[in-house]
Amino acid sequence: MREYPVGRVLVASLHQGIADVLPTRLGFYENWLHADGLRGGTIGEAPLYAVLSFLRQEGEAYHTITARAGRYAAEWTVESMPPLQRAIVKAAPGWLRKRLLLRLAGGLVRMSFRRSRASARIRRGTASIDVRDSIFCSVREPVDHPLCGFYAAAFTRLLALFDLDHRAEVVACRGTGQPSCVLTIAL
Q: Which are the contacts of 72, defined by CB distance < 8 A and separation ≥ 6?
């Protein structure tokens, strides 16, 4: 059995984001994000790299689609949690809920792309999340703007779903030439 590093949540959320923002171009992108691959979880790296490369050529639509996909991924991740786990996280005191959600955010990163990892630390009321090997930021040449809006939107939405009104900001991106992607959340 072949192991696919690309998670269903990432592929499905990107597909839905493209359908929402560029419905007339969806047929083009479905050459790589086809229904059989979505159902079976068999979309590989190469097709996903192709989709992301073509999306970057769409201009501002790239940022809109990836942000929307991040929000979908967060919502679907929370919906797939067992109800007891959701209830425990919601009932936890604020300081513990933040830590549990940072851990859940790391899980979302791994579920999206198996080689990606996220490590978080909280210092002086600010969470710093280091995302290594982001598939969004794998580019041949550095670009002039961050490409990891998917994670910023996903983390922001994840916190909002558990009644925490905090915003994730991208402070460094591997796509712009930095060693890794770093996001911060003022807690």
A: 12, 13, 16, 17
Contacts of 11 (CB under 8 A, 6+ apart): 33, 37, 38, 41, 43, 48
Ordered per-residue pLDDT tens for the chain, 187 residues: 456 688 999 999 999 999 999 999 999 999 999 888 877 778 889 999 999 999 999 999 999 999 999 999 999 999 999 999 999 999 999 999 999 999 999 999 999 999 999 999 999 999 999 999 999 999 989 999 999 999 999 999 999 999 999 999 999 999 999 999 999 999 8
Q: Distance (Å, rounded) from C-alpha 26 to C-alpha 157? A: 25
CA-to-CA distance for 115 and 45, rounded, in angstroms?
11
- Between β-strands 126-132 and 168-172, what pairing exists: parallel, antiparallel or unpaired? unpaired
Whether the CB-CB separation of 142 and 136 falls below 8 Å is answered with no
Q: Is 3.40.50.2300 the CATH classification of the domain at 8-186?
A: no
CA 138 centroid distance within chain: 14
Owner of token pair 């991040």: 70
Q: Name the CA dihedral angle for 88, 90, 96, 97, rounded to a multiple of 10 degrees.
A: 130
